[in-house]
Amino acid sequence: INISQPSFSGTDVFGYTSFLAYSTIPNITFYYEFHLKFQLLNHHSALQDNLIFFTGQKGQGLNGDDFLVLGLCDGRVVYSYNLGSGTATIISKPLDLTLNIHVIHLGRYLQKGWLKVDDQKNKTITSPGRLVGLNVFSQFYLGGYHEYTPELLPKGSRFKNGFQGCIFDVQVRTNMNQEFKSPGTPEGHPNSGRSVGQCKASPCSLIKCRNGGKCMESGSTV
């Protein structure tokens, strides 16, 4: 399947998530801006605790680790970042579940962050403490984590489940005068992934089972 709009299946029975991992986003320290769109698998998937994207000091497991994370919790978009001196979090109003596609704009300059979801009003926040730079070492994870357990990630960034649905048109810039680009090196190309499909396309449509067999889609497997 040619994947242009990734589809994520969430977290499977073994606790593994479907995900795409892109190279670390360069020059993200003092300024970044993201645009992206997503489509929920169903309304129930908006009401859980699902990761949209993450980058940070992955695997350190210590308070104060720098990170940037976006997810869904109880039908709202949650955007958090930690510059090393405390976590700043913006929570949107409940999503309008009659919309087929949701649009997110978010950003940060030094300590000040902002989030705009669909037609909701722009929300802003200022991170605590004195630190103004985001120092991340991990890849940019979309839709889920590579790790089995979110507990390995910095405190405050641990969404329990992977995303369920499609995430697409992800664009980022790290300078106000830059054009937006897709993550990855080369641009738009992930380094790795697990159990990712194409939005609105079923792998089973490519398979003809014989002898009475039936193709069934499942989540990620080891």
UniProtKB/TrEMBL annotation:
* Organism of derivation: Bambusicola thoracicus (Chinese bamboo-partridge)
Which SMART domains would you find in this protein's record? LamG (SM00282)
Name of the protein in question? Laminin G domain-containing protein
- Please list the residue ranges annotated as the Laminin G domain: 9-199
What Gene Ontology cellular-component terms does the record carry? membrane
Q: Which Pfam families match?
A: Laminin_G_2
Give the source's domain of life in one word: Eukaryota
